[in-house]
Automatic annotation (TrEMBL):
Family, similarity comment: Belongs to the drug/metabolite transporter (DMT) superfamily. Small multidrug resistance (SMR) (TC 2.A.7.1) family. Gdx/SugE subfamily.
Lineage: Bacteria, Pseudomonadati, Pseudomonadota, Alphaproteobacteria, Sphingomonadales
Keyword terms of this UniProt record: Cell membrane, Membrane, Transmembrane, Transmembrane helix, Transport
One Pfam family from the record: Multi_Drug_Res
Principal cellular location given in the protein's record: membrane
Gene encoding the protein: sugE
One of the protein's GO biological processes: xenobiotic detoxification by transmembrane export across the plasma membrane
Descriptive protein name: Guanidinium exporter
Organism: Novosphingobium silvae
Transmembrane residue ranges: 33-53, 60-79, 85-103
Length: 105
């Protein structure tokens, strides 16, 4: 169950990062509200997952999901570049997430 909570927390990290971009520096109300709500929910789920999972694993997986998810959202919705080097970097982060999951008892 803690892995599911951590995964959802990571997805919410993508939501708040994307909505923060859409808030244009917190100058637009609804994207700003969504950013804050998603942040609070993401941190809450991360904290719940950390009751069971080791700190290093939970934090690395959470930030990794957020980083790769925000990278993909930027490409799909904001027209950001998908250069080979950026794709390789995202793949390495994803590999690290998988290795953290496999290496955690």
């Amino acid at each position: 169950m803690s892995w599911i909570l951590l995964f959802v927390a990571g997805l919410l990290e993508v939501v708040w990062a994307f909505s923060m971009k859409q808030s244009q520096g917190f100058t637009r109300l609804w994207p700003s509200v969504l950013t804050l709500v998603a942040m609070i929910a993401s941190f809450g789920l991360l904290a719940a997952a950390m009751r069971v999972l080791p700190l290093g694993t939970a934090y690395a997986v959470w930030t990794g999901i957020g980083a790769v998810g925000a990278f993909v959202a930027g490409i799909l919705f904001l027209g950001e570049a998908a250069s080979p080097a950026r794709l390789l970097a995202a793949g390495l982060i994803l590999s690290g997430i998988v290795l953290m999951k496999v290496a955690t008892p």
